[in-house]
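#structure-requests
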Amino acid sequence: MAHGETLNARPTVRSLARTLALALTLLCFGVGLPIVAAASGSDSAAARRVDLGQAVEFEPAEGWTARDGGPLDASVAQQRGVTLTAEAFPATASLASEAAAAERTVVGRAGLQLAADAAPIAGRDGTAGLRASFQGDERRGEYVVLVQRGTAVRIVVEGPDAAMRAATDDIDEMVQSVRFRSNR
């Protein structure tokens, strides 16, 4: 630029078009992609379902973190100090015998005792089950056993008393979400 010349500060149509195109592109990425992801169901119930093996799956409640590979290749869901462990395996005995085995496993832990006898429940798909509660000095929990067509599911939930009370609805929801895929 020569001495005495002034810089033309007025934007040209071309520079305005580039700025507008860039703004629209950023808007699409910032707003459009989350909308597309939500519409595609990437956070849908099907996306959150956890495969327990043995053609069985369950869905962790909203806000619970879930991972595979817990004890005995079980799936574990956790929230606020409450831990839910779910596993599927070939049933080798009746529902009552599988529930008794779950009870021996739970009550065998130091300081835990049965708080209520097993009571019958039915899964959302009509699967027969038994549910019982246990307690210790600072922890309490429950176990659920469901059996269908030679496959058993054992769910053990435990945590501090206050956290267990707060998680009651979530626990019920997760127990009811168990699905035996052979029952579709």
